[in-house]
Specification:
Strand order of the largest sheet: 2-3-1-4-8
Bound molecules: adenosine monophosphate
CATH architecture: 3-Layer(aba) Sandwich
Number of helices: 9
Helix content: 40-55%
CATH class: Alpha Beta
Largest sheet: 5 strands, parallel
Distance between the termini: 11 Å
CATH superfamily: P-loop containing nucleotide triphosphate hydrolases
Number of strands: 8
Radius of gyration: 16 Å
Strand content: 15-25%
Order of helices and strands: EHEHHHEHEHEEEHHEH
CATH topology: Rossmann fold
Length: 216
Amino acid sequence: MNVILFGPPGAGKGTQADHLVKYFNLHKVSTGDLLRNEIKNKTKLGDKIKILINQGLLVPDDIINNLIINILSNKKFYNRLIFDGYPRNLDQAINLDYLVKKYNQKISCVLSLKVEKETIIKRILGRQTCSKCGLIFNEYFYPSTNQNHSCGIKFLVKRSDDNDKTILKRIETYLAKTLPILDYYKKLSLLHDINGKAGIDQIFKEISSILASLEG
Ligand code: AMP
């Protein structure tokens, strides 16, 4: 199955994706992570991407589509993808439909995490990512401990776009460009609403039972 995790920035898509990958043998596709990798490699494209990300704007569709083609065409990940932060606008959603058909796959469901603005801002300001293993933590709500993270705290970093000013622009971009996709998936009967305000374990349980019912 291929699954889309949908929601505003800070909704917990990445955290849920990390958990689901383990339990359902899925491969996580975070376009944000792929773009940050490009920045890390200090390519010319990376420099261009960095400016857009730090302004809270979307990166052009052609760049994103190339990343997605590489993954969908890879037989290793056939029909076991979990998308986090993609698609981000209607054109990307339409292109994804085209690509899944082309590579003989399908989208099994779209899980929409519902969280209000105050909560996502708090979550974003506390977010920490491990630069070694890529796992996501939150210094207030889900701190890295010996039990949940073997790399230790020394690799934890903050994202450059997780600041007060960029957050507001990212939310604006989400409302204008990304939110309208929901209607598209509703019409395709793929949409499941999830209460994203609940705790990590509770959300995981709810999502797991949806995915288990799709598998059966
Ligand atoms: P994320 O890690 O999903 O929060 O994404 C961080 C930033 O990367 C976004 O604010 C965008 O600037 C960019 N980005 C990530 N995914 C996409 C996408 N599918 N389309 C366009 N821009 C994206």
